[in-house]
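<purpose> Linking amino acid order to shape
<body> The protein record starts here
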Amino acid sequence: MTMPQTVWLGLTHAITEDWRVMAGGTWTEWSTFDEIVIELEDDGHIVQPENWSNSWRFGGGLEWDIRQDWTLRAGYEYDESPVPVKNNTARIPDEDRHWLALGFTWRPDWHGVEVDFAYTHIFINDYLISEKEVFTEQLAESVTGVEGDLGNVLNGSYDSNADVWSLGIRWSF
């Protein structure tokens, strides 16, 4: 599988000794993801068009060292979906996302141990799909020679959000 190229830029600036501001952006060349091709044992294949678009992610955040052993973090990110509305499918559901994140680092006096905790809530825009199964229509056309609205159709809607919790322990020695 060939993955798309990505360009990422991130900046951090110390406002004071205790406060830092961060910003970043990522561009991903998803337009190279044109289709999924499944090779069959009988030398046939199934082609599922995807036709994704290039996408951007932008984010920013703050860090605050409230004490020498505690750092608090907060941030926001906008993550643009690479899937055009007309290409939304049940297999790869996707839509623009807004990320809100909070976290901290605690540095107890335990010989290089640091504890990181983060919580992120991802708001995902609702969207509709109306998807026709490509393979069924292609098969029907090859058997009957008739083009048309043959094939299974899936109509639906997505309403989703996500919560991400993380806990990490680092030990430097």
Notes: The chain has one domain: 6-171. Helices lie at 134-144. DSSP finds one helix and eleven strands in the chain.
